[in-house]
Amino acid sequence: MNKEGNTYTLIYSVVIVVLVALLLAVTSQVLRPKQAQNEAIDKIRRMLTAINLSSTNSNAEQLYKEYITDAYLVDAQGNRTEGEAFDTEPETELAKPKAERKYPVFEAVVDGNKKYILSMRGAGLWGPIWGFISLDDDKDTVFGASFSHEGETPGLGAEIEKQEFSREFIGKKFFDKDGNFVSIAVVKAGKTVQEQDYVDGISGGTITSQGVNAMLKASIGAYEPFLKIKQ
């Protein structure tokens, strides 16, 4: 075959593309179990942060087994239902009709007291935001929180990951004095709201703060029937 001809060049290019694609596919399959493990550990660490526990990649799974005493799903009516809580992703459930959605609940015991860890998912300025929030045994008062994001602006919206922001939620309540779900507002620093607990938003991260505000109202609001069931 003429190595200077177009046919040779075309065949050579096709072979190289196929080989590279095959190599990438094999590499992806080989690395996938490790990636899945890393994602699971990251999720565990964020749950532990939501109950105010520090962890590392090496001890996260052990702490999870030590502190998380139960994990289950609840339906739209707040009743416990079948399914695997850890593997249930909020974005998948949000794509379903509301009546068919299931929401993960993780129970923890910290210093002898029961905590409920709830999952959150929303939208920031540049992409999805998510997190976990834990409530005391009254299913109302915030014990701790953790937030994360995919691509918020460093130094601005990305500050939702900082403990300085999540700590503002501790002690706040989602229900008003009459037992109505009102959520916790995220407002511009210096602003106030009436008849609702609130925290200061991120300076310079207005849209991300609004996203957190909407996420709390929608995500925790979805748990309202469950939260109203007192045990």
Brief synopsis:
The protein contains six helices and eight strands, in the order ααββαββββαββαα.
Structure in words:
The protein is α+β, with helices and mostly antiparallel strands. The chain has a domain at 69-225. Helices cover 36% and strands 22% of the residues. It contains six helices and eight strands. The strands form two sheets. It has a six-stranded antiparallel beta sheet. Strands 7-8 form a two-stranded parallel ribbon. Strand 1 (68-74) and strand 2 (80-81) form a beta hairpin. Helix 1 (6-50) crosses helix 2. The longest helix is centred in the N-terminal third of the chain and has 45 residues, at 6-50. The radius of gyration is 22 Å and the shape is globular. It starts with 5 loop residues before the first helix and ends with a helix. The model has no long low-confidence stretch (mean pLDDT 90).
